[in-house]
Structures are given as structure tokens and as C-alpha cells.
Design brief:
5-stranded antiparallel β-sheet, 3 helices, binds zinc ion, alpha+beta
């Protein structure tokens, strides 16, 4: 396993569509291991292969039990009409946050590292994470879905004023 460099929004790779995974081999397993190690080191909730420069449809998301789940070729097959509105960030857009609307509940169909299909459901922050990471596979960043970006300082100030 190896730590990989996370690309930032200046890199063209982040705006390209990723290719489906067709081989469930050691190379894929190494990619998934590297994604997990890099995500754990960076301290985020999810990471997509294009964020480390690999245009393959593979992502890691965090579920409600705080476990890292590997989703290969994920497709969102259900999005609730009920939406959630909240702050979202991205390891490729460090230090900036935006208010993004997402479905409150989603269901995804994906393959595991051996090619077996399974379904994953998520509410709230997990639903947000699944949407965010699958968007990366189509070359989309959350910054497209928000009117303005806030710095960490602005975010902290807002959180502090809410507490008072
Ligand atoms: Zn992201």
C-alpha cells in the first residue's frame, strides 16, 4: 500500500469522466488499498480514484458505522425526494466549503473488489458522501452545486455565532 497525492481542483483529471472497471485483479486491489490509506491519512469521509489521478470508477465512502466501503462501478439507483441542505467540502478543494443540496436518502448499486454486485443505502451524511464521490467519477466537483465558497475561518465564525 502507498499514500498517494490528492489532486486539487486545478488539475484537468478531476473534470474527466472515469472509465468502468472491467478487471477485478491485483491492480484494482492495490488501487482500493491506496485509496483507503490515503483517505485515512487525509481524514476525509470519501475519496474517488480520479482524485489520485486514476480515471477508473472506484470510490471509498464512509458508512454510518464509520467503516470505509469500497464501491466499484457505483450507480445511484434511488434518490429520495426529500433533500438535505448543508455544508460540504472535498479533499481536492482544501480549506473551502459550500452549501450543497443532496437527497436525504440514496441507494447505490456497486461491485466489490471481486466483482460481486451489492447494494448500499445511506441517509444524511452517508447519502451526501455517496453522491459526492460518484459525482467525481463523472468529472463533477461540489463547487458546481453551490453559489459561494466559504473559508475555514468563515465557517468557524458561523458555527461560533450559532452556538451563542
Ligand atoms: Zn470530493
Amino acid at each position: 500500500m502507498a499514500l498517494r497525492t490528492i489532486l486539487t481542483e486545478k488539475e484537468d483529471t478531476l473534470y474527466k469522466k472515469s472509465h468502468p472497471v472491467t478487471k477485478f485483479d491485483t491492480r484494482l486491489h492495490n488501487l482500493l488499498d491506496d485509496l483507503k490509506e490515503t483517505l485515512a491519512d487525509a481524514g476525509g469521509l470519501g475519496l474517488a480514484a480520479p482524485q489520485i489521478g486514476i480515471l477508473r470508477r472506484a470510490v471509498i465512502v464512509t458508512n454510518e458505522k464509520d467503516e470505509m466501503i469500497e464501491l466499484v462501478n457505483p450507480e445511484i439507483i434511488f434518490r429520495s425526494d426529500e433533500i438535505q441542505t448543508g455544508f460540504e467540502g472535498c479533499l481536492s478543494v482544501p480549506g473551502r466549503w459550500g452549501v450543497v443540496e443532496r437527497p436525504m436518502h440514496v441507494k447505490a448499486r456497486a461491485q466489490d473488489r471481486n466483482g460481486n454486485f451489492f447494494e448500499m443505502e445511506g441517509d444524511d451524511i452517508t447519502a451526501r458522501c455517496i453522491c459526492h464521490e460518484t459525482d467525481h467519477l463523472d468529472g463533477h466537483l461540489f463547487t458546481e452545486l453551490t453559489d459561494r465558497l466559504y473559508t475555514q475561518k468563515e465557517l468557524d465564525e458561523m458555527m461560533n455565532s450559532k452556538e451563542k
